Task: structure prediction
Amino acid sequence: MNGNSIFIKKNKLTHRVQENAGMAFDTEKEILYEMNGIASEIFNQIDGKKTVGEIVDYFLSKYIGDKESITKDIYIQLHDFLKFGMIQFKDDFFQ
Result:
């Protein structure tokens, strides 16, 4: 994963945001993932078009913090989404 990586959400996932938190439901595995507000906002940015760098830039423009810390936090969250099978690299989808 690097700043040019692009992710897509898995097809069988529905996402809802409610009061500073989010939930994603995997309709295939019947698993509910609960997310805090920031994780949900990161998940919302994954659209198959934005690079990780563009997602980082979005958060840098919206929140106060240094680029290194924000980038690290986003990478950790994206890694968790990958680990739980919620997202995948866009290039993997089209191969």
